[in-house]
Design a protein that fits this description.
The structure is a single chain. With about 180 residues, the chain is an all-alpha fold. Helix 1 runs antiparallel to helix 2 and helix 1 packs antiparallel against helix 5. It is rod-shaped, with a radius of gyration of 26 Å.
Length: about 180
Amino acid sequence: MIDILKKKSIYAYLIISLIIVLNAFSIFLFVEDQEDSGKTINITGKQRMIIQRTALLSNNYFYNLNKKDTKKNILRYLEESKLNQEYIKKIHNQIADSILYDPGYQFDNLLKQYNNNIIKFLNNPTDKLLKIINYTNESLLYTSDTLTTLLAKDNDRRTTIIIYLLIVTTIMILFIIFI
């Protein structure tokens, strides 16, 4: 009888150990995922700010407000925008990909056109190009807000799933200890 109990307790300890190791591994993956998700959400929010700031500086440039420094700042923001866009494209998230490439949004294509129009505008500032920049800016801001919001909601959903998984795992451990 004692041998049977010893075997059962050894199996219980092995199962508990396995569950603890799996739980620790899932926490590690969760923390890694949270860091990446947070960085992505921050970059999409920053991308929105850069788009808005670039349009504002383009308006300043058109109305002769410190053209030399304004042009330098616009070019710096365009470079930063390109780097952010490359990062966003590399995440290969279904939500991000749909906003970047699907016909309803085409954020990536619209941003490229926007950046090209700003370069043209810096070389030859016209009222027509400024209107195009301002109009495109509104579309980009809306799409950028949508991307940031959807990525944040997806991150919250995954966080909730991981928390439930951890709760269930803890309950299983307690149940096994009880048995």
